[in-house]
Amino acid sequence: MPRASFRYSSRTRILRALGLLFGLILLIDTLSLLTTYHRLTSSPAPPPPLPTDQRIFIASIHWNNAAILNAHWSAALLELVTQLGPQNVYVSIYESGSWDDTKDALRRLDAELEKLGVARTVTLDTVTHAEHIANAPSLDSPPSPGWLTTTTTSISPSGQKETIKKNELRRIPYLATLRNRSLAPLFFNDTTTTPKFDKLLFLNDVTFTSSLISLLLSTRDGDYAAACSLDFSHPPHYYDTFALRDFAFSPTTSSVFPYFGARESRRAMLRGEPVPVRSCWNGVVVFDASPFYVEGGGLGFRGVEDGLAERHVEGSECCLVHVDNPLSGTRGVWVNPKVRVGYSVEAGEEVRSERWLGGVGGLVGGVWRERMGRVAGGWKRWSDQRKVRGRVEAWKREGMALGEERREEGVGCLIDEMQVLRENGWAHV
After folding, report:
1. For residue 336, what pLDDT band results from cuts at 50, 70 and 90?
2. Rounded mean pLDDT, 31-35
3. DSSP for 341-372, written as a single string
4. What is the mean pLDDT of residues 159-174?
């Protein structure tokens, strides 16, 4: 056989062997994903009963949530406290300046909680976003905590470029304040005569059921610093990208299942087991309550320093609270993938059914999308994190020059954003 023909046949055999090997790997991978799909969509075991031997503090903040309150949330909460036992819970709801029917919906809920004998605080704050914004400090006065100065450029009617400076209220410190206000009754509880609460349960404006809350409370048999659901607005894409960080303290690599780039998080998600993460909120979260009771200032919510925000750096108060939680490092923060909630009745029904993955094709496509995102998006994620870390280091150096020690432990929570309050919500600037 001529040498050239021999080389050609050898290459052909090698290519065929490689093709067969790739095909075998792809087949094994597909069979594995089919097994995963079956495991994740098979009928779950009945949830454990809700605990009746624990005291649970239920907190929630609301703004223009009348639709979900009337359609689902209020009835779901009433069912939950009934099953937990009215004597075992405290409900704290803080509403802030809504202009829809939220206040009336909460008044009706308050009356129903009264009939059940539930200890509670329902605060209806009349101050709107517009009124908060109208109280902006003067540009000539010293900076006020939670405010920052923004600069915008516009073109006047005469065609001249104009620079406009104004003080704007930061969104995250504002939200942190509301969450801390919702916690206020926890600390008024007289622990000399009444036992402390065992768990803190925060509920967003999502659709939930008592069975789902039971599953969440029982995550890892209750051994956690915090445990979260998965939340969805437009399934199969999950919602809370701002607060969720995987076990490597990185943002998720994909908005669809299995979401996570970190091996520890991704593998647990594929197995349908509690997922170790560094931070989560995701619609519903339960905390071990003990860190909130620390004398002299327990765990609470906060934003990053205003000086960092001025450098276009922001982080969710729902992420920073896990960084500050002393139990996070020993007992862990977990996402329970069996607990899935929606921001509408329709979304909630979909993610609680076997359709939550978008079918077999949705799962396979999602897994490959995450794999490609892990590789293709690696440079951008590293670059984004490097940019933020550089700004944090510059802020620290500035403090050293002024004789100040500046610290921010929650660098993994931070992103390249600046968020301010608006009359109708909030905005990036």
Report:
1. very high
2. 72
3. EESSHHHHHHHTSGGGG-HHHHHHHHHHHHHH
4. 88
Q: Mind listing the pLDDT tens digit for each residue in 167-217?
A: 999 999 999 999 999 999 988 765 555 678 999 999 999 999 999 999 999
- Let me know the angle formed at the C-alpha of 60 by 58 and 64, rounded to the nearest 5 degrees: 155
Q: Which residues contact 55 (CB under 8 A, 6 or more apart)?
A: 88, 89, 90, 195, 196, 197, 198, 199
pLDDT band at 4 (very low <50, low <70, confident <90, very high): low
Give the pTM: 0.90
Residue 371 φ then ψ, to 5°: -60, -45
Distance between CA atoms of 409 and 320, rounded to whole angstroms?
9
Which phi and psi (to 5°) does residue 426 adopt?
-155, 170
Least confident among 75-79, 165-169, 326-330? 165-169
What is d(CA 54, CA 264) in angstroms, rounded to the nearest whole number?
31
From the list 269, 356, 256, the residue with the least C-alpha distance to 36 is 269
**Number of residues in the chain:** 429
Contact 266, 258 (CB under 8 A): yes
Q: 103-106: which pairs have CB atoms within 8 A and are 24 or more residues apart?
A: 104/66, 105/65, 105/66, 105/69, 105/70, 105/74, 106/62, 106/69
- Here the tokens at position 16 are 């065929």
> Distance (Å, rounded) from C-alpha 347 to C-alpha 349?
5
Whether residue 285 has pLDDT greater than 80: yes
Which structure tokens are listed for 245? 């960080």
Ramachandran sector of residue 329 (left: φ over 0; alpha: ψ -120 to 50; beta: rest): alpha
Residue 408, SS3 per DSSP? coil
What is the C-alpha separation between 237 and 233, in angstroms, rounded? 7
Query: Which single residue is written with the structure tokens 């979401």?
Result: 259
- DSSP string covering 373-405, please? HHHHTHHHHHHHHHHHHHHHHHHHHHHHHTT--
Q: In angstroms, what is the C-alpha Rg of the chain?
A: 25
Q: Any idea which architecture 56-428 has in CATH?
A: Alpha-Beta Complex (3.90)
Chain centroid offset of residue 407 CA = 23
- CA 366 remoteness from chain centre: 21
